[in-house]
């Protein structure tokens, strides 16, 4: 008789869910997935949560295999020698093998004023904090989105589609991760949506105040009314521009 192997997956994002599902193909493997929230967060939809067109969460029952044990908690310590994890709620979980899939988050807000006046949008909770701010802002309030990776581009597009006046401050170029052809097509789409795109060496945010961002070239972008300044600065920048629901759905099904 073969022995059972305990695998614990830390993090129930795309990587963790995929790994957990794959592992259950083997009958002699027991899989536990540990994640702080009871729902799967679709990071690629967080900008839609900000814009109000999607809640960016999916029930784990839709994406996680039946044999996987879900533990809603946060791992605070890994004791590799003892093969044991400590949970935020105080318990411990043992394992034979560990999958570490905790993803990424917002960069530290090192820009003066960013922590006080800007809204990061890398996590569900951050996007949820920004949503009511956008809702409460007058329709004419200008919104500045900082960072032109996938989150910044998608957020700027989403808000502009809602009729918001949006400025996208790129830091350097629009979509640095894209092929020049892709960049051109994103720029075209931004222009069509009426988004003001600030690129180049003078388009790095040096300071954020209550109603403006100060740029490296000394320029100051004043917002007509107080609105959210969505900081979309990620440690890792991945993905493509202006993807829409259908593509995401395809991807979601790919994880089932
Ligand atoms: C706007 C946008 C568009 C994108 N488009 C694409 C695309 O087209 N194609 C593509 O391939 N990628 C795309 N991406 C990137 C994609 O979202 C990421 O690559 C993906 O989310 C990474 O998955 P992950 O599982 O590594 O991390 P995450 O999805 O971040 O999941 C990590 C999980 O680990 C949990 N966790 C963290 N710490 C702990 C802990 N201590 N204990 C327990 N759990 C913990 C987190 O709460 C989270 O649930 C896009 C991203 C954005 C923002």
Overview of this protein structure:
- With 256 residues, the chain is α/β, with parallel strands linked by helices.
- The chain has two domains: 99 residues, FAD/NAD(P)-binding domain (3-Layer(bba) Sandwich); 132 residues, FAD/NAD(P)-binding domain (3-Layer(bba) Sandwich), CATH 3.50.50.60.
- Helices cover 29% and strands 27% of the residues.
- It is built from eight helices and 17 strands.
- The strands form five sheets. The protein has a five-stranded parallel β-sheet with strand order 10-17-11-12-13.
- Strand 6 and strand 7 form a beta hairpin.
- The structure holds flavin-adenine dinucleotide (FAD).
- The site of flavin-adenine dinucleotide (FAD) has 27 residues, from helix 1, strand 2 and helix 6.
- Flavin-adenine dinucleotide binds next to helix 1, strand 2 and helix 6.
How would you summarize this macromolecular structure in one to three sentences?
Helix content is 29%, strand content 27%.
